[in-house]
Task: structure prediction
Amino acid sequence: MLIDELTVGIVQTCCYILGREDGQECIVIDPGAEAKRIRKHVGDRKIAAILLTHGHFDHIGAVRELMDPGTKLVIHGLDAPMLGDPELNASAGLIARKVTAPEATDLVKEGDELELAGLKVKVLHTPGHTPGSVCYEIEGELFTGDTLFEYGWGRTDLPGGSEGQLEASLRRLMPMVRKMPFHAGH
Result:
C-alpha cells in the first residue's frame, strides 16, 4: 500500500491518500482543505472513497470539491449530521467561513469491514473527540484522526466531546499502536 501524507488547511490537518502501487483507484482520508493540491497528489487515479474520521470542519473542508460520480463518502452515523451543520462541525464558531460537505453515501459503525480501492478497511468506533469519531485499520496501518496524536489526543470541549469516552477510546488504542504504525489527524 502506498501512503501519501499532505498537511492541509489553517490548522494543519493530516490528509492521507492511499492506494495499491499498481492501482487505478485510491482512498482519501480527511481532506480538510486544499482540494486542488490533494487532486494533484491523486493524479490520474479515481477517488473510490473519502473516509472521514469525524465531522469537524478541518477534516471535511475539501470533500465537496473532491467528490466525483461514484465516489463514496464514508463517516460514522453519529457524526453524519455534522457534514451539513456549521454549528456542529465547529466552523461557525472557529473560522471566518461556514464549512459544509455533501451528505454521506455510507454510514459506518464499529466492526464494519469494507473493501475500497483494493484495500481492506476495518472501522473502530473511538468516541470522545466527537460522538462518531472512528479510526480506520487499513492493511496493518491505523489512521486515528483526532482520537490520538503522536504526543497527545484530541480536544473534548467542542459540541459532542466527552473526556470519559475519549479516555476509554485511548485505553483501547494503546495496545494496538504499540504493534502497528499509526497516522494521526494533526
The two ends are 21 Å apart (CA to CA). The chain has a mean pLDDT of 96. Residues 163-177 form the longest helix (15 residues). The domain at 2-184 is CATH 3.60.15.10 (Metallo-beta-lactamase; Chain A).
